[in-house]
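Service request form, structural biology core

Requester: graduate student, group of Dr. S.
Request type: structure prediction, single chain
Budget code: on file
Notes: please return the result as structure tokens.

Sequence provided:
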Amino acid sequence: MGGSESLEFHLNDRVTIVQFLVLIFLCINFLLIATFFSKVYFYTTMRYILFAVTLLSDSSILIMSNNLLILSYFRFTMQIGLCVIIYLNLVLCTFVTPVTLTAMTLERYVAICMPLRHGELCSTRSSINCILIIHSLSSVPCIVVLSMFFASAPHSLYTQYSICSMGMFVFLRWQNNVKLAVYQCYFLIMTLTIIFSYSKIMKVVKAATGEDKKSTWKGLRTVALHGFQLLLCLIQLWCPFIETAVLQINLKLFIDVRYFNYIMFNLTPRCLSPLIYGLRDDQFFLALKRNAPFGFPCVKCMKNVQISGLSDLLPSGL
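Core staff response, request fulfilled:
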């Protein structure tokens, strides 16, 4: 009995930490979104538009995943049909972030390696087309997983009530294998794109001199940070498979691993976007200082924010 009470207190503590951290990072994201809309230059420039897409996607993931966490914690059941809709949106947003990061990397590649064509290829109209392509590509994994679910699930299942868990959408082992294959394909394509862009920009850096060299080095660092952020996002796609294997070994270990995964591969990538563009970009940072509710000192201390824990109860299985 004592062990059960200890575990319940441990989970209570973690859920409280989650609420605090989600609130902090949602406030930061909403401040950055407000800053994005504060100047015409931002919402007519491709790299800032794509930055806003990642902010909206990350904020949506934080809100939906946190709501699922709370519902799961209180053992709240919902109709399976409603859970399908939530799952569709959650997986879509989960893929939108890494695909957008890849697009942002390509934008930096065009800006540095093809500067004369940057205005043509990265116009506002091109940005809108790029967003449509990003969401189309991100919807493919949703379609694949849900098609397998609809093909194997009985019609009566959709009206039943259950705790909404992402693991319920995979019934058979072959479905899990197909899902893993799709994720691996995305991982490979995006990784190759990052490596290609980095190598091309590196060549330009070596050939540049003076101010051009300083500017290209900054672009190279940005691409490297995008690569790290993308790696965290893509590892998140592997987490459900790791957690499933750990669950067969030990329940407590499974809870701890899920908690760690949520910290490192769900929360951390959602915090790096503000770090990369909100604080490293000079123009955006100046606008951010003006919009910060407590002035410059508050915004400046964001640079020193350390990423801490999140929850083990988040329904996994994306």
